[in-house]
TrEMBL record:
It holds the Pfam family S1_2. Gene3D superfamilies: Nucleic acid-binding proteins, Winged helix-like DNA-binding domain superfamily/Winged helix DNA-binding domain. This is GntR family transcriptional regulator. InterPro entries: CvfB_fam, CvfB_S1_st, CvfB_WH, NA-bd_OB-fold, WH-like_DNA-bd_sf. Transmembrane segments: none annotated. It comes from Thalassotalea piscium. It comes from the Bacteria. Residues 4-64 form the Conserved virulence factor B first S1 domain.
Amino acid sequence: MANIGKFNTLPVIAKSDNGVYLDAGDLGEILLPNRYLPANCEIGEQLSVFIYLDSADRLVATTQKPYAEVDTFASLKVVQVNKMGAFLDWGLPKDLLVPYNQQHKAMEVGRHYLVRISLDHSTQRLIASSKIDKFVDIWPADYQVEEKVELMIAAKTDLGFKAVINDKHWGLLYDNEIFQPLRVGQKVTGYIKQVREDERIDLTLTRAGKGKVIDFSSQLIAYLTQHGGHSPLNDKSAPELIKKELGVSKKTFKATVGNLLKQGKLTIEPNGIKLT
């Protein structure tokens, strides 16, 4: 069955002057307009398309990729506000509506807001909501320490950054463990640091111990390669400089350099480190 608000792989079943029709199962036949057709498209061909309602409230397919799909979060810009609500640019010709009753605070043109995209099953319309809390933490937090997760940076706090974990739970990244620039709406990979007894979740952007060194090793080698195989950074360099250049703590930098030295991939020179 095809899903509204998501990408679907559907077969071409007919051609018309306006485009081709796709078999969307229970949703019926859906038009893919000519401007989105791949070259030499033929009947029977399988196409990956996104389905939504166009400005005339007709189901339509497109090969354009929106900034987010249904049941996910995104930081989107308000391009218009009228009596219906706020309209967001989400990468498709028809802007995404946030009704007034779905706005946590009144939205303003030109500003970005973190929203959750949903399908109104009664109208088949895609809408967004900035009332994030009603979509988060409604499932049990079943995570393991050091489990890899996908994060959406949601807000700056006194302690660090709140983030949405796997589109399901709230988590917190602490300022003193962040070694890279972050912004609201950014998607990053993170790891579970701990799940507390009250089910609040602490996060980290890097694995602990040996895992952190393994992960950073390839990054350091790539950095050196891009800089002619050499860097003036060494164990005497200021932590702030290492953080600025490499996005890690000095402790991680030193441990990784030591590990690569043992492997024979680096050498220490009077003016820094060098790839062998």
